[in-house]
Automatic annotation (TrEMBL):
Residues 593-603 have a biased composition (Basic and acidic residues). It comes from Astyanax mexicanus (Blind cave fish). This is RING-type E3 ubiquitin transferase. The keyword RNA-binding does not apply. It is an enzyme of class 2 (transferase).
Length: 1175
């Protein structure tokens, strides 16, 4: 202890005067204001003392029973002042060595005790005013008249007069030494001071122990859990709140922090690893205590602010409901005593939804199973409600009295959490597990929507959560950091440079020049080399504005699209007001630097909504912080939620597979002859195994349906879908600023629609959702050159392909304005060479499927004939053709001759490539299979082979659709390319027929191998597609067209009549012997109608007669045949070189080359040629 000046006295006789409040007391570890706060806190302590002492007595006695035996102190038992060698300066010491008065400039004196282990405290009573420093020092510490305790490196002191702590340097510490009322809670000075003094003494021993994890987990957590054992609402147990108040009052901040850290980590571990029991009691118990702790404002803010203990990545554990690995462990047998699974399947292996054929026993089992599922769901809902309460506490924005509100602390942590998961997608060790993310997203949606609707009730002009969306200005005003995620128009740095004028004119935003100059010259060079197709070329296309079609207005909202095929018209029309508001300079803010004002705004600052475009309505939406959380929810779905939703469908698929296997086994048992008991025994063993597995899977599926695929979860995903649609629609109205929209909004819109359609059935059907829930992607092909990312282009085409698969979404596409439907079809009919043609071809095929020849199946018929019970067979959606879009296609191809020629030539080119690749691959597969050594065909090669076959079939179906809708393209030879197109078509059809129908050919041998991965490769898909084309041009056309088609087909050198006869099982194949089963359309009566069979027979008879007549005619002289193909007569002469060939050869040659076949001269024209009569 050191004192400045004289007159300072410490007396032992005054120590027990508890009411002597005018003489502040100082401890070696607590500041002099501690007892002041204790006395001010008296009111609450009196209410708590009975319950609190029960706990304190048990804890302290248990903790201190062994502490007395710890050897950490040296010196006599009564501590006195060292008046022999432990002082410096002029001092007067009392006779009992317990009081001292200093009379020199800066006197110091020690006590006679040394402590070296544990934690210790001593008290002194100050009897006079003056500058004094009281503290601790080491044995080697030396004092003088200028340096006392706290002034040397090996000492520490507190100065209550100046309210500072000393250790060579000084900092503020403690409070002023006087009694004041506590402003916040208005506590009054009353009660029993001895209780507070006693508590202070107890906490001197108790507080250090609260930092020990084993004590917190074993004693403190169990004590707090015991308080909540009585049940009821968490708000009905104020004792926990009062205990936390005592902690913050009587313990040092670092001690409370460590105690709360260990307490929350203990709760997290207990919740995560606690066993699952039928009533989920453990999980509910731990969540209730977590909720009670977070109800305490100061503790909640500390936990949210502490990066190490309560960051979002760890706290999401509290929102996860883990799936039990063992059914018995979770008690599901008690909740769901009766199991059920589908037992009736249609001919395609799908579950029958018609319950009219259900037996009484099956009905009872199903209803008992459904009741068990409901019991399980209700218990899970209790846990989910507690999890939502935790999130609502974290999202509280009304607790601003003691600093930043909880919501803004959470929001910054939440954004950091999203950044870590978006930036480390290749490093799973630092990512939030997808199953945690799914549960977290659902709870966050519920909490956000509740706050959103609460705000709607308070503000009449705000929108409800049903109409929620993210305004477009959030994507470009820099208030929200998207950490370099891709935008629809490319990278943000590039968009800021190219669209800075649009930002200034439309949103009154000026980008900080420092950000624009951040890109180096190397980056600029790379941008130039990447090409204009990889970035928006605003200046070149629209005078500085991004030329982008308005393609995503949603029929979900029932609004008409405001633009036609592009935004050109609206962008060319100036919309600037006469007196534009003052422009604001903005720059991107890191998450750590944002404040509440940056988010919510103040004094004319719009916060997150800064830079509202003219097209955006000027109305309140909701609290701006909720908009950023909503944006984070959409990002969460894109990061891993959709992936996890698809992964959990496997359990439902397993139930279906085992159910099919069990039914097949039961049928085999019924057919098993009585003389084979060995087979019967094995079948019964299999039956038992399948039944046990189904019992387990059906209970596990009930858990998954309740936690992931319930109706409420489906509505959450549907809400996310509508948020994305509205967000894209509002961004669409901004014209060129649409390029700032993050691409994950488009991904989430497409993926969530797919999830609703495929993942939640059959437990919940998308048809039960309100409204029209499709996304209109009519301009997806047109948008492709304007998007920077190749993946998003493919996703757009895949999305459109999936929407035209389903009747409901297809009808929504048909309801868009006619001019936009026509624009969509025009872009789908663009030449295939200019874009990814496979996706476009699939779209056209799906618009046709259901109208083609024998094209009404959902499972490949040849597979159903061989393996009807296999549930893994490739499956297609039920046919839902669009006659309206087919009509638009027919009109476009009929009116625009050049577009029709270029489109069909590209289709024929791709068909030639795809089928040639397929033939080459099956040759390699056959050679590998015939080698004597054991060879395994690469699965990737098999997959590519099957893909080429599927592409060939789909291209043939597009040709069938074109021939059916617009036959004049091939048969009206007044059109410039009609004859060439017909000859090319005939040539490819003959090649396909010859390759596929030849007796015991390569195709037959590979099909008979039945290799896994080549299930779709068979005669039926490709031969039926070819047959549909032939029937249309040889039977259903006009007489002149039929004659032209027959002439071209028969004149082709590759034509073989037996290939046509093969379709009905006739010709050479029928004479090959009865040991080989031949393909015949007659064998597929379930898929080919009698009328279609009759047309094939009519076509075969017609071609038979025509081939006989062609054989009877006088053959053409060899000199008159085309020297290129030797199949047709010379009919064209070239200019200027006068060489000759048939029209088909020269027209096809001129598509790719302008040089003459023979002399390589440049051909300037082609004229008709006929042989002179006298020649």
């Amino acid at each position: 202890m050191s004192s400045k000046g004289g007159g300072t006295a410490l007396s032992r006789r005054n120590y027990r005067l508890a009411s002597d409040t005018d003489k502040p007391k100082v401890t070696g570890e607590r500041d002099c204001a501690s007892l002041t706060e204790i006395l001010l806190y008296l009111t609450k302590v009196v209410l708590l003392k009975h319950c609190f002492f029960l706990w304190l007595t048990s804890c302290v006695s248990a903790a201190c029973s062994s502490a007395d035996q710890v050897d950490g102190r040296l010196g006599p038992s009564p501590v006195v002042l060292d008046h022999t060698s432990g002082f410096e300066g002029l001092l007067f010491v009392d006779d009992d060595l317990l009081g001292v008065i200093g009379h020199s400039n800066f006197s110091s004196i020690r006590a006679t005790t040394c402590v070296y282990k544990g934690k210790w405290v001593y008290e002194v009573l100050i009897s006079s005013q003056g500058l004094m420093q009281i503290g601790w020092c080491t044995l080697n510490c030396r004092f003088n008249q200028e340096e006392g305790v706290g002034d040397t490196p090996d000492s520490y002191a507190y100065d209550g007069n100046r309210v500072r702590k000393w250790n060579v340097t000084t900092t503020n510490y403690g409070k002023e030494e006087k009694l004041v009322e506590r402003d916040i809670s208005s506590w009054q000075l009353q009660g029993e001071p001895t209780v507070l003094v006693t508590l202070a003494h107890v906490f001197n021993y108790f507080a250090p122990l609260m930092c020990k994890v084993y004590l917190v987990e074993d004693v403190l957590m169990n004590f707090l859990l015991g308080i909540l054992e009585g049940g009821g609402s968490v708000d009905e147990h104020p004792l926990i709140q009062q205990l936390l108040d005592l902690f913050w009052l009587l313990m040092e901040d670092f001690e409370v922090n460590e105690c709360l850290k260990q307490l929350m980590m203990s709760l997290l571990r207990a919740y995560r690893f606690s066993p699952i029991i039928p009533d989920l009691g453990f999980q509910i118990h731990y969540l209730r205590l977590t909720t009670a702790i977070l109800h305490h404002e100061k503790s909640r803010k500390y936990l949210l602010s502490n990066v190490a203990t309560f960051d979002v990545l760890r706290s999401v554990v509290f929102f996860y409901i883990k799936t039990p690995l063992r059914v018995k462990e979770a008690g599901l047998e008690e909740l769901i005593p009766t199991t059920w699974w589908p037992t009736r399947f249609d001919k395609e292996g799908k579950d029958e939804k018609d319950l009219r054929h259900e037996t009484a026993e099956e009905r009872l089992r199903r209803r008992a199973y459904e009741r068990g599922c409901q019991r399980l769901k209700k218990r899970i809902e209790v846990v989910e409600e507690l999890q939502v309460q935790i999130l609502r506490l974290m999202l509280n924005n009304k607790d601003k009295g003691t600093g930043e509100a909880s919501r803004y602390i959470f929001l910054n942590k939440f954004r950091k959490f999203l950044q870590e998961n978006a930036s480390n997608r290749g490093n799973p060790t630092v990512l939030c597990p997808p199953e945690y993310m799914v549960c977290f997203m659902h709870r966050l949606i519920t909490a956000v929507r509740s706050y959103w609707d609460d705000g709607k009730c308070k503000s009449a002009g705000a929108i409800s959560s049903e109409e929620a969306y993210v305004p477009p200005q959030v994507f470009y005003n820099g208030k929200v950091d998207y950490f370099d995620l891709q935008r629809l128009g490319g990278l943000l740095s590039h968009l800021k440079k190219t669209l800075k004028d649009d930002l200034a004119s439309k949103a009154n935003i000026i980008i900080d020049p420092a950000e624009i100059q951040a890109a180096s010259m190397d980056d600029l060079d790379e941008d130039e080399e990447s090409g204009a197709a990889q970035r928006p070329s605003g200046a070149a296309a629209m005078g500085g504005a991004l030329a982008r079609p308005s393609w995503l207005s949603s029929p979900t909202l029932g609004r008409a699209n405001r633009f036609l095929s592009t935004a050109a018209v609206s962008l060319m029309t100036p919309r600037r007001p006469l007196a534009p508001p003052e422009k604001v300079k903005v720059r991107t803010l890191p998450v750590e630097q944002r404040t509440e004002e940056d988010i919510e705004g103040s004094h004319g600052n719009d916060g997150l909504l800064l830079g509202r475009p003219l097209e955006e309505p000027d109305q309140p939406i909701t609290e701006k912080s909720l908009l950023e959380i909503l944006d984070g929810i959409v990002m969460m779905y894109n990061l891993s939620v959709h992936q996890q939703l698809g992964k959990m469908v496997v359990v439902s698929d397993d139930v279906h597979e085992y159910a099919v296997a069990l039914k097949d086994t039961e049928e085999k048992i019924a057919r098993c002859p009585g003389r084979r008991p060995d087979i019967l025994e094995e079948l019964q063993k299999s039956q038992k195994v399948f039944a046990e597995k189904l019992n387990h899977l059906s209970r596990r599926l009930a858990w998954i349906n309740a936690t992931i695929y319930s109706k409420e979860k489906m509505l959450d995903v549907y809400w996310v879908l509508r948020v994305c649609i509205r967000t894209i629609e509002h961004a669409d109205n901004t014209g060129s600023l649409f390029a700032f929209n993050p691409e994950f909004y488009l991904n989430v819109a497409m993926n969530s629609y797919s999830a609703l359609k495929n993942y939640f059935s059959p437990s919940n059907s998308m048809e039960e959702l309100p409204g029209d829930h499709s996304i209109n992607v009519r301009h997806a092909p047109l948008l492709q050159p304007l998007l920077a990312d190749v993946h998003i282009k493919d996703s757009l085409m895949q999305a459109l392909a999936s929407y035209v698969c389903y009747p409901q979404s297809l009808r929504a596409v048909e309801r868009i304005p006619e001019d936009q439907r026509v624009a969509m079809m025009r872009n789908l009919l663009a030449p295939y060479e200019q874009r990814p043609w496979a996706q476009t071809n699939w779209i056209l095929v799906r618009l046709w499927r259901g109208c083609g020849f024998g094209y009404r199946y959902t499972r490949l018929p040849h597979l159903l004939k061989t393996k009807p019970e296999d549930a893994n067979l490739p499956s297609l959606q039920k046919p839902c053709p669009s006659l309206l879009l087919q009509r638009h296609m027919a009109e476009l191809l009929s009116q625009d001759k050049d577009m029709a020629a270029s489109f069909l030539n590209s289709v024929l080119n791709q068909l030639n490539w795809a089928f040639s690749e397929f033939i080459g691959m099956i040759q390699e597969i056959q050679q590998a299979a015939e080698r004597p050594e054991r060879n395994f065909v690469d699965t990737r090669q098999l997959k590519v082979c099957a893909t080429c076959f599927d592409l060939s079939v789909s291209l043939l179906r597009v040709l069938e659709m074109t021939v059916t809708l617009v036959p004049e393209i091939f048969l009206d030879w007044t059109r410039p390319s009609a004859e060439l197109l017909l000859r090319r078509l005939a040539q490819l059809l003959n090649q396909v027929l010859n390759r596929v129908t030849a007796e015991r050919n390569l195709f037959d041998r590979v099909v008979n191998l039945r290799l896994p991965g080549l299930e779709s490769v068979d005669h039926y898909p490709i031969l039926v597609a070819v047959t549909g084309i032939l029937v249309r041009i040889l039977v259903d056309s006009e007489r002149q067209g039929i004659a032209r088609a027959a002439s071209v087909l028969l004149s082709d050198p590759c034509f073989q009549l037996h290939s046509i006869q093969h379709l009905l099982g006739e010709g050479e194949a029928s004479a090959a012997g009865a040991d080989h089963k031949h393909f015949s359309l007659h064998a597929y009566t379930d898929y080919i109608s009698a009328e279609e069979e009759q047309k094939v027979e009519q076509m075969l008879g017609f071609l038979t007669e025509e081939s006989k007549q062609a054989a009877a005619t006088t053959p053409t002289c060899e000199d008159d045949l085309c020297p290129i193909c030797y199949a047709h007569s010379i009919s064209a002469i070239f200019k200027p070189c006068s060489h000759k060939s048939c029209k088909a050869c020269i027209n096809q040659h001129l598509m790719n080359n302008k040089d003459c076949f023979f002399c390589k001269a440049t051909i300037t024209g082609v004229e008709d040629y006929s042989k002179p009569a006298g020649s």
